[in-house]
Amino acid sequence: MALEDAKTQVDQAFTRADARGLSYENAFGGAVSFLRRRYTKDLSGADIAVTGVPFDQAVTHRTGARFGPRAIREASCLQPYDPPYGWGYDPLGEFAVVDAGDVAFDYAKTSEFPATLQAHAAGILAQGAAMVTLGGDHFITLPLLRAHAAKYGPLSVIQFDAHSDLWQDDDFDRIDHGTFLYKAVKLGLIDPAASVQVGIRTETPDYLGVNMIDARTVHEQGAAAIAARVRAIVGDRPTYITFDIDCLDPAFAPGTGTPVWGGLSSAQAAIILRDLAGINLVGGDVVEVSPPYDHGLITAVAGAHVAMELIALWGWTRRGQSRA
Fold it and tell me: Do the Cβ atoms of 95 and 316 come closer than 8 Å?
């Protein structure tokens, strides 16, 4: 669709007929679907379904991540005019990407939420679409990993985070955003030896065999070298990326529940994500965007870019390309 045709379009979140293609609508008007994709529950023909999980009942400090999906969608409206920089192809033009809306759940029945989210994810995957999920706090990744592992088997996980989320918690009925990876390892959902964490800068007694690259190592060795190391760890295994926005330093992502200084810059994260091109990405999420603590949509903009990079990463491999 040409730019001059923008005035003839009326809220493509509802009227877009083709799930492919860039969007030329006013960024400041209309419904805030992700990247101006069509809102739909019918995923027939969809390559990727973006879905929101407005859940933050598992946080240990500041709430607000329940508003993350809405803020990320709003921030994403700045992006769909052009292909993402540096990829050399147009993911939105080549792949059918839709916005499947948010998971529905009863906020007053927190104990039912994990099964509800897992079923929601399984339903999307069963329709043949890959998932990019907008959180929500980091607990949501555990039900998402359950659904993906049921389809693909034990996964490699690439976790961008300030915290390992590997604190011991053998009560599997507890809902806690700081223990999701511990439980994923214990449940056999992931292969620790083929998984890696990037940006860690808090102490953890036991990494349970998961590879860890702390933030200082990223700063000292450089983003490109870190990306090469991560790619070597995951190889060609089915891989899930979970990006906790607090992986970024609070200067680049102030709107989060448990900020920690010394984190990655937006530029470092962008280089690492783009240099991961060629991994066998099967799904991913961006979590812990907390708009009440954000400033000028800084954190939401970062979250929207991460989600776009996940789409580009998924599409790169499906195009049969890889980077040396």
Answer: no
What's the number of CA atoms in the CB half-sphere (13 Å) around residue 315? 26
Burial of 9 (0-12, 13-18, 19+ CB in 10 A): middle
Tokens representing 159 are 């976790």
Q: Take residue 305 and report the two structure tokens written for it.
A: 């870019």
* Tokens describing residue 141: 């990744």
Residue 242 has pLDDT above 80, yes or no: yes
Rounded to whole angstroms, the Cα distance separating 101 from 123 reads 13
pLDDT in tens, 119-155: 999 999 999 999 999 999 999 999 999 999 999 999 9
Q: Is the pTM of this model over 0.85?
A: yes
Grouping H, G, I as helix, E, B as strand and the rest as coil, residue 133 is strand
Q: What is the DSSP letter of 190?
A: B
Q: How far apart are CA 225 and CA 219, in angstroms?
A: 10
Helices (H) and strands (E) in the chain, counts: 10, 8
| Domains of the chain (ranges, CATH numbers) | 40-318 (3.40.800.10)
298 — phi, psi (to 5°)?
-55, -50
DSSP string, 80-110: TTSPPTTSSS-HHHHS-EEEEEEPP--TT-G
- Mapping DSSP onto H, E and C, the string for 217-282 reads HHHHHCHHHHHHHHHHHHCCCCEEEEEEHHHECCCCCCCCCCCCCCCECHHHHHHHHHHCCCCCEE
